Amino acid sequence: MTAIPLPYGDDPDTKGFWDATRDKRLVVQRCKACSHCQFPPHPFCAQCAHDETEWVEAAGRGQVWSFGIAHGPTLPGFQNLVPYPMIVVELEERPHIRMVGSLVAAPDASINSVPASAIRIGLPVDITFTAVSDDITLPRWMPRASESLKP
Amino acid sequence: MTDTIFLKDRTAIVGIGETAFGKAMAQSEEQLACMAIKAALDDAGISPSEVDGLCSLNMENVFQHDIARDLGMKEVTYYAQMPAGGHGGCGTVGHAAMAIATGQANVVVGWRSRKRSGRASRVWAQLEQRIQGSRDTWLRPWGIIRPVDEVGVMYTRYMHEFGATRDHLANVALAFRSHANRNSNAFMYAKPMSREDYFAARWVSEPLCLFDCCLETDGAIAFVVTSSERARDCRTRPVYIHAAAQGFDGGSAILANYFTADPMRSQAATCAKSLWRQSDFRASDIKVAQFYDAFTPEVFFTLEGYGFCGRGEGAAFTEDGGIALGGRLPVNTGGGSLSEVYLHGFNMISEGVKQMRGSSTGQVDNADCCFVSSSDLGPTSAVVLRN
Ligand SMILES: [Zn+2]
């Protein structure tokens, strides 16, 4: 299978995020001065322009903010998986934080394992982690167990 | 500040040039660029040797020094490239106007030349195995690869918040196709489209189908700007650059605007504020407009961002032929990126000029000004042209 495009795990601005996902933890940046939390990570606090941030753990519970279904033609690494859903998740405890993700039926299941008919805005999801290379483990999301996958 | 120079009507577009539009054209991107620029200069009655300013987009493959050499330009004193590709088209008009108003140059050419097979044509298809840069890092590993994926996910949310449907997208695609059917230079000139055709099209990235996406075409378009004083001696009727603006909000992102506090707030809002501050015309005065339409939903965001309607009302604005000829605001009267040609919005600029000259194939009667904007999903730009 053709590999999917991955980030570098040692970029100074994002290393802490990928270090945490390798340990199956989801983290976001928190400003040491004003406690503002932000994602995606960047070098300064977007609220107060302070230059020191720390990584704090997020619960890994969220809901689908929006989604789409990709059909081909697309990159070779994804072409054999179409049609597959793409989701944006907002975190339950910090609704202003949104992350792009994949929706999977079970840990390590394929990114096309949840049928489009089972996806809706507001669908509760829980995090899971899939190692895709030595240095990169991707957070992915599963429909919450209490949610049936009925169309 | 007493020394501030305002752009209002100080400069004018005096020439436009367009190649034919097609697929797999024989000419190189460089040749197409030269053809369009030469045609624009001929239109204006200005010799290439008089050109001293050059403006383009950062996605342009043909460099300013190649253009200057190919066409025999002598001394080039101003050159600029706009960032963010299709978001910067109108920015090249603004830069040309600023360069002339501030004495940096006397005759400025802006151009866009593109072949789908060109080196930089489809950025997404050239992703490396390891991603560089913050934007791609937080999208690509999860399969949001193409611009259409990014915009599709935005539109699912838009439908959810504002009750819009795919029928509204069809309104856009059908209006622009009907305009292209009047324009013999448009790629889709001879291909009418029905609502049934729209709904029968294959998915590209749900909720967007093939007809929600712009064409993939070859071609080039150029324009020539000079001072309003000089413009009166040119071969054509001057089309004045009445207002020109750029803008973005901190935190906003190109296309995939998922991470900002209010993703459904049109990113054009900041540019709009600057534009209307400069303009004697208000949004309610505009009788014809050219919007960037790489994807149909962008039209709704643009309608809202520039105040042609309220937040969340963009989709409904297109009902009952609202943006078709004869509607309350005819948009993309030459067919747009969806049905005329995809050249990162430069056909919006040339169509705006045609409207002001009275020579459009979709001419709007009594239009005294034309609004033109670039892609509003990111750092954007817009102009108001007048005759
Ligand atoms: Zn802070």
Automatic annotation (TrEMBL), chain A:
Regions crossing the membrane: none
Domain ChsH2 C-terminal OB-fold: 55-129
InterPro entries tied to this protein: ChsH2_C, ChsH2_Znr, NA-bd_OB-fold, Thioester_dehydratase-like
Domain ChsH2 rubredoxin-like zinc ribbon stretches: 18-49
Name used for this protein in its record: OB-fold domain-containing protein
Protein's organism: Aminobacter carboxidus
Automatic annotation (TrEMBL), chain B:
Any Pfam family hit: Thiolase_N
Residue ranges of domain Thiolase C-terminal in the record: 261-375
Gene3D superfamilies: 3.40.47.10
Coiled-coil residue spans: none
Domain spans labelled Thiolase N-terminal: 12-187
InterPro entries associated with the record: Thiolase, Thiolase-like, Thiolase_C_2, Thiolase_N
Protein name: Lipid-transfer protein
The organism of origin for this protein: Aminobacter carboxidus
